[in-house]
Design goal:
single chain, DNA polymerase, domain 1, 9 helices, Ubiquitin-like (UB roll), binds FE2/S2 (inorganic) cluster, 13 strands, Alpha-D-Glucose-1,6-Bisphosphate, Chain A, domain 4, 8-stranded antiparallel beta sheet, about 375 residues, alpha+beta
Length: about 375
């Protein structure tokens, strides 16, 4: 047994638990909070969804001991939450429940969606994707979608201040607990650094451009299609006025290649000259899934030059997960960023737009191995 100290629904709690006890059992059996339901107990149905430090998690996949020092909110802890009150009313008005077994998890997820998409118009199709990690056997989802849309349509009333800033605004990956993909500081000049958090990866890079920062920022912000075309392998199929994008990323290394199709969102912060692209998608061939974010910042480097910092955070699951492990991935990303720099520089000089085609997988592997051999044998 281990002693666990955490906050549950705002109250400090201490208990002795077995290391194998999951959070749902702890809430139901130790805290007697039976509003958290268990359906599949292996991360598929979403009935057990609760908030851990403000983010939705599957409590059946979360060990209680991993919540040491955390703040957990179950459906009971959201009784007086103003947004939850509105969602509950809306679920009743739109007949969004029958047996109610899925409803606690559905409401917790709905609250997260409303916070993340506050003030935006969200298509029913996209909303259903966001809800794809919560299964309902009874309703057919129509009432649930209507209930959430009803709340989303009144953004002026939404208390959005508590929305976690780094939560992905793209597809909610069903079956997977979310991995926090956090922004980070800019790396040194032309440097690329990588770090791993579980199966997630975070890579930072920075480079200088021989163009003023205002020109670089304008080019990035005013022509999303052109910016995306600078990144080898990335193809944008559509971009909405609110920054929602739909695209494909072709990536390959050696015998492995993938075509990851998905959706995402682009946001710009003019004041900070920074932007963020977040998205998630799936490779139809291997069934692998990817999600991640790219944060970029443009700064004045003096003498008419600018520096650009890039932080990439991503998570791969399935056969492609081998890309997220080992240092080769750092080489691949560094090559992609270097090619992005070359293409962006050409674009800023008014030269022909880059093709946006993927680098040849074998050449990518060769370039990576060549730079590795050079560094091993001191020829770099
Ligand atoms: S019980 Fe946790 S996802 Fe189904
Ligand atoms: S209302 Fe019965 S499972 Fe959703």
């Amino acid at each position: 047994m281990k002693t666990l100290n955490l906050t549950v629904n705002g109250k400090g709690t201490s208990a002795a638990v077995e290391p194998r006890t999951h959070l749902a059992d702890f809430l139901r059996e130790d805290c007697l909070l039976t509003g958290t339901h268990l359906g599949c107990e292996h991360g598929v149905c979403g009935a057990c969804t609760v908030l851990k430090d403000g983010r939705p998690v599957r409590s059946c996949l979360t060990y209680a001991v991993s919540c040491e020092g955390a703040s957990v909110q179950s459906i009971e802890g959201l009784d007086d939450d103003p947004l939850m009150v509105r969602l509950r009313d809306s679920f009743s008005a739109e007949h969004a429940l029958q047996c109610g077994y899925c409803t606690p998890g559905m409401l917790v997820t709905a609250r997260d969606i409303v916070q993340r998409f506050a003030g935006q118009s969200l298509s029913d199709a996209r909303l259903r994707q966001e809800l794809s990690g919560n299964l309902c056997r009874c309703t057919g989802y129509t009432g649930i979608v209507k209930a959430i849309q009803r709340v989303l349509r009144q953004p002026e009333e939404l208390p959005i201040a508590s929305a976690p800033a780094s939560t992905l605004t793209a597809l909610q990956m069903d079956h997977y607990t979310r991995l926090p993909l956090e922004e980070g500081a800019m790396a040194g000049p032309a440097a690329a650094a990588s770090s791993s958090d579980g199966d997630g990866r975070r890579i930072e890079a920075a480079f200088e451009l021989d163009h003023p920062s205002e020109a670089v920022w304008r080019a990035l912000r005013d022509d999303i299609q052109g910016t995306v075309a600078c990144m080898p392998g990335l193809e944008l199929r559509s971009v909405s006025e609110t920054g929602e994008v739909d695209g494909v990323f072709h990536v390959g290394m050696g015998p492995i290649s993938a075509r990851i199709a998905g959706e995402g969102r682009v946001v710009f912060d003019d004041a900070a000259c920074s932007g963020r692209v977040e998205g998630a998608g799936k490779d139809g061939g291997s069934g692998s899934r990817a999600r991640g974010s790219v944060t970029f910042t443009v700064q004045d480097a003096g003498h008419g030059r600018s520096s650009m910092g890039i932080v990439m955070a991503f998570e791969l699951t399935g056969a492609l997960a081998q890309f997220s492990r080992g240092s080769l991935v750092q080489d691949i990303v560094r090559l992609l960023i270097e090619q992005f720099r070359v293409n962006l520089d050409a674009r800023l000089r008014g030269e022909e737009a880059p093709s946006g085609k993927a680098l040849n997988p074998l050449s990518l592997l060769w370039l990576s191995l060549r730079s590795r051999f050079r560094s091993w044998f001191g020829k770099g």
